[in-house]
Amino acid sequence: MAAGKQTVLQFFPSTTSLSARVHPVVLFNICDCYVRRPDQADRVIGTLLGSVSPDGTVEIKNSYAVPHNESADQVALDIDYHHNMFMSHQKVNPKEVIVGWYSTGFGVSGGSTLIHDFYSREVSNPVHLTVDTGFQNGEASIKAYVSVNLSLGDRQLAAQFQEIPLDLQMIEAERVGFDILKMSLVDKLPNDLEGMEASMERLLALIDDVYKYVDDVVEGRVTPDNNIGRFIADALSSVPKLSPAAFDKLFNDRIQDNLALVYLSSLTRTQLSVAEKLNTAAQIL
């Protein structure tokens, strides 16, 4: 047979090198929907909203759950609900478009291909985000995939899910909440001072790691990395030059401000609670 007429088994990957960045509000929303799921549902499926930058980075900024029924060989999505929710989100933020879909659980399941086919008709090259809501051993398994077609000649055989880089960028306050979310049981939510203490402990641990790395480079035990050196230089240049006395005064003043805010918020909650009870008692009488 001539070489030009041979049947070749080949992949057709995405033409764009994609990566994803997920905002913490999406993870909180997915976990909340999983907790509120129907008793007979094993997992939660939903739509991801966001934007795609010119360099191929998918910004996942929002999400909403979509009701579905799932069996061994088929999946039924509530398409009308999906479209109505998307239209409602467009009225609030028209810049957020559909960028993919999510599901809870560890990795990709058998019915994911059917759901991905539906979202492929909604948007070109959708991203599939999986979130393991079990948080085994206190760790979160969060991954992003795109679909890669496997064809034999002119016939498409299957679709393969290929993992893409995923970035979780959070500010310190959001990271404290995310760390609590990964715990299966907590006695209570930390207050402002406890959250600040946890942040300071994490900062001290990072400073110790940087100090050890710099010491190893100076002693010749580790090969220097210019990129890490630039990051350390940028971090040091961003620190304001304050004397120890001025820093202590600034830190203590900030703590006093936080304590005042905690006291005022507690006082406001108490007044609202008393007013609500008085209003209820007046309606009963």
Describe the overall structure:
It is found in: Cytoplasm. Component of the eukaryotic translation initiation factor 3 (eIF-3) complex. By secondary structure, the chain is of the alpha/beta class. The chain has 2 domains: 162 residues, Cytidine Deaminase, domain 2; 42 residues. Helices cover 45% and strands 24% of the residues. The protein has 7 helices and 11 strands. The strands form 2 sheets. Strands 1, 2, 3, 4, 7, 8, 9, 10 and 11 form a 9-stranded mixed sheet that branches. It has a two-stranded antiparallel sheet with strand order 5-6. Strand 7, helix 3 and strand 8 form a beta-alpha-beta unit.
What is the topology?
Layout: E1 9-12, E2 19-22, H1 24-35, E3 45-52, E4 57-65, E5 68-70, E6 75-77, H2 79-92, E7 97-104, H3 112-122, E8 127-131, E9 142-152, E10 155-164, E11 166-168, H4 172-181, H5 192-219, H6 226-238, H7 244-284
How would you briefly describe this protein structure?
With 285 residues, this protein is an alpha/beta fold. The protein is built from seven helices and eleven strands. The strands form two sheets. Strands 1, 2, 3, 4, 7, 8, 9, 10 and 11 form a nine-stranded mixed beta sheet that branches. A two-stranded antiparallel sheet has the order 5-6.
